[in-house]
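Lecture 7 notes: from sequence to structure.
We start with the chain below.
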Amino acid sequence: MKILEILLIGIGLSMDAFAVSICKGFSIPKMNLKKSIKIGLYFGLFQAIMPTIGYFLGSVFANFIISIDHWVAFILLSLIGLNMVIEALKSDKSETLNNSLEFKTMLILSIATSIDALAVGITFAFLNVNILSAVILIGMVTFLISFVGANIGHKFGGKYGKNSEVLGGIVLILIGLKILLEHIGFFSFFNI
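Predicted structure tokens for the same chain:
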């Protein structure tokens, strides 16, 4: 898997965190650099931890399903992406958030927004991705996007959160489809 693909996966995965960061920024009356960094660190750290856990879980089972790994990657990424789109369209996260940055609150939000990354980590095991570089990149991308999201939320409110989650879900579905098409030889058939 190429760096660009991992970067796109990182961006796609970070859309939940971005949406929640926007809502957090909107709900915090006195946003400052320290609070923005704290939000980014929580979300970035968990987006790095969860795929690592998924990778090790997937590594245990990789030998059993190596012949269908591309289907597993496609199905998992598509389900994650579809779930992101559905959740974005049916929920209003801004109603459930408060302005607390306490450990318990941020821990729950960080885990909730990084569950998808656990499943992506499982697909990384099947695709023999360098997990260290992948999770560092995903964590950094999520940190930056969450940091920016908190500041955007503080300045402009929760206007774009739902659209960003839909876009992130679509990106994950398209990457899963690309993995599947590569493995079944679709691109070589058309000399792409």
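Points to note: The mean pLDDT is 82. The two ends are 17 Å apart (CA to CA).
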